[in-house]
Amino acid sequence: MGATLFDDAAGSDRPDAPLAVRMRPRDVTDLVGQQHLLASGTPLRRLLDGDPTASVSVILWGPPGTGKTTLAHLVSRATGARFVELSAVTAGVKDVREVIEGARATLGMHGRRTVLFVDEVHRFSKTQQDALLPAVENGWVTLIAATTENPSFSVVTPLLSRSLLLTLQPLTEDDVANLLRRAINEPRGLDAAVVVEDEALMHLVRLSGGDARRALTALEAAAGLGDRIGVGEVETAVQKAMVRYDRAGDQHYDVISAFIKSIRGSDVDAALHYLARMIEAGEDPRFIARRLIILASEDIGLADPQALPIATAAAEAVAFIGMPEGRLPLAHATIHLALCPKSNAVITAIDAALADVRSGSAGAVPAHLRDAHYAGAQTLGHGVAYRYPHDSPEGVVAQQYAPDELVDRQYYLPSQHGAEARWAEVRERLAQALGSGTARETAEHDSAIEEVT
């Protein structure tokens, strides 16, 4: 079966257990981070305090290594419940149903509740998630589901509506540093058997990217190399080059700036280098994806009409599959955007239009374009002499669209790069067609107004 049963919910007392498991908090006082969820009287705190009236299923949404599994263990321990863990990666509908039947039997025969922890619940299919509903609705289990993806998109609505959604935040650097110091010194950790240099400790913090499990795993690997740990031992242990990157400092902005400028400059290899640095440093992939979407319109636009859809698809893919697999659509989009033709005509056009509006160059909407769907509109000349483009075989008719003050103003100036060269030709033809009839249309409009009045 794809379920793991722990009657001892802590599961961290074995000396051969991984350091991340041994250091799992045993009560609320051991927790680091997530203080916004742990205030007295909050639903999660009541669960952790063993309040029997607080039995509610919970969905924990947050980045890896922020305490989702730990919180599930602590709730189980606080309530004295059986702890059953299902991994959405390996469990099927049959496993879900077997766990539910076991929970019903235990509750009926022994009066003992079951905490069912489902890791990566976003990987469950709709059918698998639906199979959980009867158990949640009838209180046969206290479901604690963990996800790194937005539950609004990855969890079915009936399950979401029956659960309390709690959002976990990435651990701060201070949180991770405190956790590492505790692991170095406490008997259940390394019991002060190693000395970790300050620079090495901060390097471990940076490598963790706010992920406690990643930090503890790296520390344990480095401790296996000797009783004194420097940056070199950390690098050797994790087999990764030092990434000089500070998510909260100058490097954060320097690297993303270099990333964008490398794509804009069509240097695909440099762009991939900076992408790798950000991924390795634990940068939020959603931040990277957002910047790619902005770049697709700002620096490419209609020179490659597929740039924006590809960047948007990459962002959706990252949100759907998470990391580390999310590196693939990010790289996919980065390569495409770096290699495709460039144009800044879109941002230049909208910024020029905004500048005119902000400076007061707006002008009245031409009367024939105004809303004519109310009584008395025609007597004011609204909608009179408007020509419907679809009535023309060409689909384009010559009439004035811009306010009088802006008739000759051009905002979109297509480049000759890539697919935008075609739009430059189209733009010119349309400008001629629309402009050639301006005087005639003005005369027709004035004549129509006279007839109405």
Can you tell me about this structure?
This protein has 453 residues and is α/β, with parallel strands linked by helices. The protein has four domains: 3-167, Rossmann fold; 173-238, Helicase, Ruva Protein, domain 3; 250-339, Zinc Finger, Delta Prime, domain 3, CATH 1.20.272.10; 359-452, DNA polymerase III clamp loader subunits, C-terminal domain (post-AAA+ oligomerization domain-like, Orthogonal Bundle). Helix content is 49%, strand content 8%. It contains 19 helices and eight strands. It has helices spanning 19-22, 43-48, 68-79, 93-110, 126-137, 151-154, 157-161, 173-185, 198-208, 212-223, 231-238, 250-264, 268-280, 285-300, 307-321, 327-339, 345-358, 420-436, 438-452, and strands spanning 3-6, 58-61, 82-87, 114-119, 142-147, 164-167, 195-196, 228-229. The strands form two sheets. Strands 1-3-4-5-2-6 form a six-stranded mixed sheet, sandwiched between helices. It has a two-stranded parallel sheet with strand order 7-8. Helix 8 (173-185) runs parallel beside helix 10 (212-223), helix 9 (198-208) crosses helix 10 (212-223) and helix 13 (268-280) packs antiparallel against helix 16.
